[in-house]
Specification:
Low-confidence stretches of chain C: none
Largest interface: A-B, 25 and 21 residues
Number of strands of chain B: 19
Low-confidence stretches of chain B: none
Chains: A alpha/beta, B alpha/beta, C alpha/beta
Shape of chain C: globular
Strand order of the largest sheet of chain C: 3-2-4-5-6
Radius of gyration of chain C: 15 Å
CATH class of chain C: Alpha Beta
Largest sheet of chain C: 5 strands, parallel
Helix content of chain C: 25-40%
Largest sheet of chain B: 7 strands, mixed
Mean pLDDT of chain C: 91
Mean pLDDT of chain B: 94
Distance between the termini of chain C: 6 Å
Strand content of chain C: 25-35%
Shape of chain B: globular
Number of domains of chain C: 1
Number of helices of chain C: 4
Structural class of chain C: alpha/beta
Strand content of chain B: 15-25%
Oligomer: heterotrimer
Number of strands of chain C: 8
Helix content of chain B: 25-40%
Order of helices and strands of chain C: EHEHEEHEEEHE
Distance between the termini of chain B: 11 Å
Number of helices of chain B: 13
Chain lengths: 309, 432, 172
């Protein structure tokens, strides 16, 4: 893979980049089976996690990944209340540059912030989620999980269900899956599913359309209440209308479909309890693969910090 | 004082070849009308080659150049963050002359908050001392542009204010606005407001479409502008106030104004910002904050409808919506970056290069939308002389080509997508 | 450039297997593993395991990718895709024969040993290679080399194998 400093979106990657990162993810996962679950690849390198939005899962996943590559991990705690304006991000970048960080993993509620940081510093910047824009590491772990389950991503049909409009996961995961030759459809409450003319992705608004489309994977999104100031839909309807109910789970089971979810799940909203124990529920695989995918991403990026800095 | 003679000029409006004598021949300043357009400081016009030019007179050979009235801009912000007010006034004045603009209506900003007499007085003084261009302040509709308490309209009107605007701020307090309109209507003031429903556009950053989807940015629905325009028209009609709709950006917005004008609403006028005629939401590309505007850049079909609106007179004026943003501010992420472009420095060459030359607008349409109509709406008036102020003339050389660079920008900031591009047209102004 | 042809390589592998049968294998009955270094070393290791098996000697097969352990990883701009290491047994108390294609500076062998020790504690580790070109920078020497080549520092040694490259030769 040609030297690449940052990972901001899937769109910015070449097909070869995507293939290479996925291929290495598999090798990274093998490391977990060793008695020493650690490799010296990033020994002496410093990794900073800079999360302006709370997230325990993604942050720990990145931290475990960096630790397993022997990097030194620093957590930069940003009190969300004090950082309201974009100015502070610029000031923070200056601070980070003085700290000589090699890798910066950033999450922010504003779409486009990681790109701004990447432009202004020599460290490799990894977008761990920005607004409703992109979440590329999630895309890689999702693609890898599907590849692991089916041997191949190409030709698979994946329907992403939920609040597409506000979901960076939907954008990044649909992009990588389509790049790898899968077909993607969106389903969710009408106002939360963008028009096909904008996305190029078929748009459904009920389960019957989903089953008719014959998907292989049901990908459920988390209902993000915190991002909606004025409600977009009557929340109490969601489970019955769009969730995986026990009745739908039986159909999913009959058709041998897989279930995925980026976590954390709202049981009883997107998904019923029983579905969590369903034989083709890949949610735990996604978590494990998340670490391997993030190790692969860290390994494949090239910070520009070692040269005359 | 001797006269200056301009020979072999082409009158932009009709293509007629002219010679002019400029300057005072006696004590009385003269204004001659040509095609109903007043020519400031001119005391003689003949067909080209027929004017008697005395020996040793100052002669400008205008062969190949167009003669036209200078432009008036109905919508400019002049405040530059980090610059003193005097500096902001000076730079904007220089930029305006370069772009062929002789005068402008200055929108209130926090630093130029025209909601009281003393701010207006000190502004008028500073403009007299510093500005090469005429600057007319738009008085605030509400104190501090907060949308709650009306400003002292009588006092503002006595200081020469004829247009009221809270700039980009749109109130959702319709009752306050209705009462303000009724009161100000008695004074003959015009309300310049943008169509918007703040509740629908809060936390939105660009036109909803394929680009906003890709970038994960919340879309500003066109219906917010359209509902806003409709609301303003009904309010103004009921209150009997004159209304100027600012920066129309949608096709339906144009249609609403067209219908209202057809039904008969003499006090209704409207403007479009130049950038809404030239760019679409796709120009935002990968978070290019230069293209972040208010209202946002929309679809190609909107550009075409706006252009048609200019052509049929539904949209009375083209404006710059000149908004200086310092580099730091525009370097932020798209959500945090401020809206706006600067346009004064490049105004007439940009209009020529991107609208006239490709045949989208004629010179006659441009002169109407950029010179005649804006001056009619703003009614520039000389307080001391007690007479209307008339646009000066300028010469425009369509053969001049120049690259827009940091050194050609006088307005103090560089937030224009034209930076680094080549424009056609050289402006000579003032002529004497 | 001098070339060693496929037949010669095959012959050398036979001699190599014979060496393993005579010297290493008798002391490690049931505890012998041939571990190849990806890429090319793993192919050689697989062939050696087969040749041992043909001669009635069972040996475990393993393959490791040492990329993540390279001491020059951060000096190289290009990061190659990683291959999966395959070590389906614990190296504890085993005799491990590391198989590399070309032995040069010794840095690859060092990295390989680091990998192995993270899987367990072998009783003994030997280093075997197809070609030894000299130029050691570390106190590491192969226990067995099928070819000893005199190759100037600048010259690149290239091994092509049927399984990977569709043709087979060694040029230096």
């Amino acid at each position: 893979m040609n030297p690449r400093k940052d990972l901001i979106t899937i769109d910015a990657l070449s097909d070869e980049d995507i293939r290479t990162i996925l291929e290495s993810t598999s090798a990274m996962k093998d490391i977990f089976t060793k008695s020493v679950k650690k490799v010296p690849a990033l020994k002496g390198k410093s990794v900073l996690t800079l999360f302006y939005e709370p997230s325990t899962r993604t942050r720990s996943s990145f931290e475990v990944a960096a630790n397993r590559l022997s990097a030194d991990v620093t957590t930069f705690t940003v009190s969300t209340s004090s950082v309201v304006k974009g100015e502070s991000v610029h000031d923070t970048i200056d601070t980070l540059m003085s700290m000589k960080m090699d890798y910066i993993i950033v999450r922010h509620k504003n779409s486009g912030i990681p790109a701004v940081i990447a432009r202004h510093c020599k460290a490799a910047v990894i977008n761990a989620g920005d607004g409703a824009h992109a979440h590329p590491s999630q895309a890689f772990l999702d693609a890898f999980t599907i590849k692991e389950k089916y041997g191949e991503v190409a030709g698979k049909r994946v329907v992403i269900i939920g609040d597409i409009l506000h979901s960076r996961v939907a954008r990044s995961t649909s992009t990588i899956l389509r790049r790898l030759g899968a077909e993607v459809a969106y389903m969710g409450p009408g106002p939360l599913v963008p028009q096909e003319q904008y996305t190029g992705i078929p748009r459904f608004t009920n389960w019957e359309q989903v089953f008719t489309w014959k998907p292989d994977v049901i990908y459920l999104l988390r209902v993000q209440n915190e991002r909606m100031d004025t409600p977009f839909f009557p929340r109490s309807d969601y489970h019955q209308a769009f969730g995986v109910t026990e009745e739908r789970l039986r159909r999913i089971d009959d058709l041998n479909l897989s279930i995925m979810h980026p976590g954390p799940v709202n049981r009883g909203v997107e998904i019923c309890d029983a579905a969590m124990d369903y034989r083709n529920c890949l949610i735990n695989n996604q978590v494990e693969n998340g670490i391997a995918a993030r190790m692969s991403i860290l390994y494949h990026l090239t910070p520009q910090t070692q040269n005359n800095d | 004082m001797t006269n200056t003679y301009i020979t072999n000029a082409t009158w932009a409006l009709t293509g007629q070849k002219l010679d002019l004598r400029m300057g005072q021949s006696g004590d009385e300043p003269t204004t001659i009308y040509l095609d109903d357009i007043p020519l400031q400081g001119v005391n003689g016009v003949t067909d080209a080659g027929e004017m008697k030019i005395p020996e040793g007179a100052r002669v400008i050979d205008a062969t190949g150049k167009l003669l036209m009235p200078a432009l008036f801009d109905l919508h400019a912000k002049i405040e530059i963050a980090g610059c003193s007010k005097r500096e902001s006034i000076y730079r904007t004045g220089q930029a305006a002359l370069q772009g062929g603009v002789w005068g402008m209506l200055v929108m209130p900003t926090p630093g130029f908050c025209f909601d009281n007499a003393s701010t207006l007085d000190s502004f008028a003084d500073a403009v007299t001392q510093r500005s090469a261009a005429t600057m007319i302040p738009a008085g605030c509709i509400t104190e501090g542009m907060q949308g709650t308490q009306q400003t002292p309209y009588n006092t503002l009107a006595a200081r020469g204010v004829s247009i009221l605007s809270d700039a980009e701020h749109v109130t959702d307090n319709i009752l306050m606005l209705h009462r303000a309109m009724k009161y100000a209507a008695e004074l003959g003031l015009t309300f310049a407001i943008r169509g918007d429903v703040p509740a629908l556009t809060h936390n939105t950053y660009m036109h909803p479409g394929s680009t906003s989807y890709k970038l994960g940015l919340h879309g500003t629905p066109a219906c917010a502008e359209e509902i806003g325009i409709e609301t303003l028209i009904r309010l103004a009609q009921d209150a009997g106030a004159k209304l100027h709709i600012q920066t129309v950006s949608t096709a339906e917005g144009v249609a609403i104004i067209r219908r209202a004008k057809q039904k008969g609403m003499p006090g209704l006028t409207a403007e479009v910002a130049l950038h809404h005629l030239l760019y679409t939401h796709e120009n935002v590309g990968d978070y290019d904050t230069t293209f972040k505007t208010l209202p946002p850049l929309r679809e190609q079909s909107d550009c075409e409808a706006l252009l048609a609106g200019v052509k049929d007179g539904t949209i009375d004026c083209i404006v710059t919506d000149h908004t200086p943003c310092i580099p730091f501010a525009k370097k932020q992420d798209f959500v945090s970056a401020p809206q706006g472009m600067v346009a004064l420095d490049t105004y007439l060459p940009a209009i020529y290069t991107h609208l006239i030359k490709p045949g989208k607008l004629t010179w006659a349409e441009v002169i109407k939308a950029c010179c005649v109509s804006p001056a009619e709406i703003a009614t520039p008036y000389d307080q001391e002389e007690g007479t209307p102020v008339v646009a000066p003339l300028l010469l425009f050389d369509p053969e001049v080509e120049f690259c827009v660079t940091e050194s050609t920008m006088n307005c103090g900031t560089l937030n224009t997508p034209l930076l680094g591009t080549t424009l056609q047209g050289g402006v000579t102004m003032p002529l004497c | 450039m001098p070339t060693i042809k496929q037949a010669e390589i095959e012959q050398a592998l036979d001699a190599w297997a014979a060496h393993l049968l005579n010297t290493t294998a008798p002391q490690a009955v049931g505890k012998l593993a041939i571990v190849g270094l990806i890429s090319h070393g793993d192919v050689l290791a697989r062939r050696l395991v087969q040749k041992l098996k043909d001669n009635g000697c069972e040996a475990e097969y393993g393959a490791i990718d040492i990329t993540l352990y390279r001491d020059d990883l951060n000096l190289r701009g290009i990061r190659p895709a990683l291959k999966s290491s395959y070590l389906p047994f614990s190296p504890d108390d085993m005799t491990l024969v590391l198989v590399d294609d070309v032995c040069n500076t010794g840095r690859t062998a060092r990295a390989a040993m680091e990998v192995i020790f993270e899987y367990g504690r072998p009783a003994k580790v030997e280093l075997h290679c197809l070609a030894d070109r000299g130029g050691r920078q570390l106190p590491i020497h192969p226990d067995y080399a099928a070819f000893k080549l005199e190759s100037p520092e600048a010259e690149r040694i290239q091994l092509r194998l049927m399984e990977i490259d569709g043709t087979e030769d060694l040029t230096y």
